Amino acid sequence: MDRVDRVDRVDRVDRVDRLDRVGRLAAYGAALVMTPYALIKISWVVGSVAGLLPIGDGFDLTGWVVLNTVTIGMAAIGMAVALALVRPWGMRIPGPLVAFVAWVGTGFLVPLLPYAVLDPLLGLSGDASQRHEGSGPAMPGWEAALIQISFVGMGLGLALALPAYLRRRWPEVFEGRVGDDGGRGRRPALWAAAVAAVIGAVWVYWALGGTAGVARPAHQEAGGRLLTGVWGLWALVASAATWMLSRGRPARLPRWVPLSLGWLGTGSLFAWSGWRLPITLYVALARPADVSLPENLAFVAVLQAAAVAAGAAMLPVLVRSRGIPTARDAAKASARPPGFRPFRGQVPYGTSELRRQR
User: Fold this and answer.
1) Which of 147, 169, 191 represents a domain boundary (last residue)?
2) Mean pLDDT, contiguous 10-residue spans, the chain (358 residues)
3) Are residues 121 and 235 in the same domain?
4) 211: Cβ–Cβ under 8 A, 6 or more apart, which residues?
5) Which of 50, 179, 237, 336 is 20 to 30 Å from the Cα of 6, by its Cα?
6) Do 23 and 74 fall into the same domain?
7) What span, in angstroms and rounded, lies between the C-alpha atoms of 328 and 325?
8) Which residue, 107, 89, 238, is CA-closest to 162?
9) How far apart are CA 315 and CA 269, in angstroms?
10) Entry pTM
11) Pair (112, 209) in one structural domain
12) Cα dihedral 211→217→219→224 (10° resolution)
């Protein structure tokens, strides 16, 4: 039994080491790939202040500078989050703060990866520089390409770096299988899963061309429907993942699968609906002449508010989920030598030392 336990420990640390290496490279890559976006935005601010570059239509100089300065700050936060997932100082930041910022960040970026791939392939929104015409000076194609690469690269990097960070810091959350707790999950969150399922179904219905709840069907665009469909699918993913963890089914499914998918789905619900809700309320109350949304504003505002609430309500199922030791785990624990401590947060010794113990 002692030899079997050591072999299991070697295999376990090998897997963690591989995930950790991939996550570290992805974190550095995410921070690096966002650099072109930040530099482009800085050039816009400096160029507009110096009178070398034009400002966008509908903006005065102050508004243009403020808008782009805010996006520069958002890019800097994204780069800092990516580095926090890999650098030693990131392990000293309060866990809830890192988790919340990473949850919102991945909720914004990662769920959009399918849209970023499908939109140019299907040609639904047209060329980026052409889309910019009519609303200001045309954006050079190379700038549009770099901005797209920055967002896609950051999303992919966070998608790989965040699970590695979470597993280093809270390894017990990812251990075991969905059914290890006998289905005694946090069932009060099932209402949130049901709400998310309804919201996801409505968004998918709109993406497929449905017009119920749409005040201006002629204003619907193919690119907008695709994006709505992506949001709807992630809402359904969040609902399914929460149901699995709350009910403990399917019992043999590794716990990390619904945890990872639920993290992205709930983050998408919370982040994007939280971003869109103020815009919807502004359009509904101020009724600007040059802005109109295809959906019924009152109905879509209720949907977005419900999505924010559902995303926040499902998150505790993910962060408080713990694997309950099985009988096999208990047998292993009783066979461990005195003084053995399972790793928490960091692997205390490398695989080479474990192999020498074999």
Assistant:
1) 169
2) 48 64 92 94 92 78 88 91 89 84 85 78 56 52 85 87 82 76 61 95 93 83 87 95 86 85 92 90 81 85 95 83 45 45 40 39
3) no
4) 217
5) 179
6) yes
7) 8
8) 107
9) 11
10) 0.74
11) no
12) 20
